[in-house]
Design brief:
Order of helices and strands of chain A: HHHHHHHHHHHH
Shape of chain A: globular
Largest interface: A-B, 52 and 52 residues
Keywords (chains A, B): DNA-binding
Organism (chains A, B): Dyadobacter fermentans
Oligomer: homodimer
Protein name (chains A, B): AcrR family transcriptional regulator
Structural class of chain A: mainly alpha
Radius of gyration of chain A: 20 Å
Pfam families (chains A, B): TetR_N (PF00440)
DNA sequence: GAATATTTTAAATACTTGTTTAAAAAATAT
DNA sequence: ATATTTTTTAAACAAGTATTTAAAATATTC
């Protein structure tokens, strides 16, 4: 028994995700969501009780989406250079596929952190990955510069995410077209890989 | 002839800057601004015609504030390692003093870039600094890895700005208190300096 | 100091906001 | 088919929005 027509609840959820990511919580109205979902305005509250509850539900999903792929890669049994390369490639792909995601998360958490951290078991999972073991072993046997996960991980992620979050300002500042930016971002990605690996891996 | 009482227009401008930085354009109401400035609601429109016009004026100032110190450092006649170190220290100080500034700029531009770029002569100034000459000379005489300004500058800035923009998420993710974060950020700052210099400077 | 211009005020404007209502429509159960 | 539940609808709600009004208060000019 296959449903050809999507359930209304899911239609609203998906529409809300699109609108929230694009406009943020404050910039989004219930009517925006209803219109995007092509549904009656009252249904958003019928299914989710309030704009706030709908937002919190979606935010949780989005935050997990942000961490999930990275987590998988962090736990892979591959050498550390490959791992760093994969994380950066994954970040790059994510920023191209969902250009609003990271700035959305950063901004919403910055504006009201207390409201947006539920029981995020994914945080614990990030803290306890195979990469952590690799860092400890590498530091012990002298192949890696001694660094904690919280020091190396932002160094890996910030380069790609920063230029994509600030895509428009970088385009304007350095007089790039969209096409220019594409090439530039690819270059930058390789610089970041090389720079981080050079710094972390000894010799 | 010194004014002890601040002019109303300036009181509103300063109040508006505080509120906009904290809540963003969409999250800020005219009444928020009037209340923060302790002035009658009608005065914001009396002096600035509309919330939009007031915002644009403030945004321009904020964007220049973001670039101004960096620009001064970029044009100093000092060796490139010191220059990188100074830029990072300056970024660090800025993020501590104005924690909302960078995420605000990034988010507002991301949401509506076309609306927020006036005749920014400061952009041109950033493109034509002494650092650019240093990069060209260093690449020519083999002391520096050949890189363009648009490649090295984000690498210098992203590390510090990224962890401060995501301060709350980093605190939560790595179970840090505010105090922990302070120490962590200092560590990270030195990692970034070393990593970028190691990568750019040959030998 | 009277006339004029500027600044400030409370109130009203027209409109949008999130949310609720109560009835209609559709789906499900008996 | 009838009764019951679930879903959808148009309309209304009270509160909040940016902005404007016109009069009052203040400052400035002559």
């Amino acid at each position: 028994m296959k449903c050809v027509t999507e359930k209304s609840e899911d239609k609203i959820r998906e529409a809300a995700k699109r609108v929230f990511l694009k406009k943020g919580f404050d910039g989004t109205t219930s009517r925006d969501i209803a219109k995007e979902a092509d549904m009656n305005i009252a249904l958003t509250n019928y299914y989710f009780r309030s704009k706030e509850k709908l937002f919190l539900e979606i935010f949780k999903d989005v935050l997990e989406e942000y961490f999930q792929n990275m987590l998988t890669i962090l736990n892979k049994d591959i050498d550390i250079k490959s791992k760093i390369s994969e994380i950066i490639d994954n970040d790059f792909a994510m920023m191209k596929q969902e250009p609003d995601l990271v700035i959305f998360i950063m901004n919403e958490i910055h504006k009201s952190p207390q409201r947006l951290f539920p029981d995020m078991s994914i945080f614990r999972q990030v803290r306890e990955t195979h990469l952590k073991k690799q860092l400890e072993e590498g530091a012990a046997n002298g192949t890696l510069r001694p660094m904690q996960l919280e020091n190396i991980l932002p160094l890996i992620k910030c380069g790609v995410e920063f230029i994509f979050m600030g895509k428009e300002i970088h385009k304007e500042l350095f007089m790039m077209t969209d096409e220019d930016f594409e090439k530039y971002a690819e270059e930058q990605k390789e610089h970041i890989k090389a720079m981080v690996c050079n710094y972390l891996v000894i010799g």
